[in-house]
Write a structure and sequence with these properties.
A hairpin with a 6-residue loop joins strand 6 and strand 7. Helices cover 18% and strands 35% of the residues. The protein is an alpha/beta fold. This is VOC family protein.
Amino acid sequence: MLNPNVPAWFEIPTGDLDRAQAFYETVLGIRLVREDLGGTVLAMFPYGGKPNASGALIAQDDCEPSVQGSVVYLSVTDLVPALERANRHGGDTIVPRTALPEGMGYYAQFRDCEGNRVGLWSPV
């Protein structure tokens, strides 16, 4: 049976882990922590404890950045400055800030410096 808080983990593929880590740290104003998990090096996003999900940037031969496929939405306080920083640091806006129905907040999507489609969500 599926747990009520989905997802439990996500991975964003990279071609250059150093470049992607610098991009996300700048765009999101966070620090990603490098971990070696069985020979695979990840740059891990902050984890807030259960029931919050987290994830990582990953550089692996069988993981290729793409704008096709699944989209991970990252929760931010205000998506406007994050989207602006993404555009200034090698990303491109795919979907501008868009209101969700009935006070559910706002979302946007951008192409990151690696070529992935990534979403942002914020309450404002």
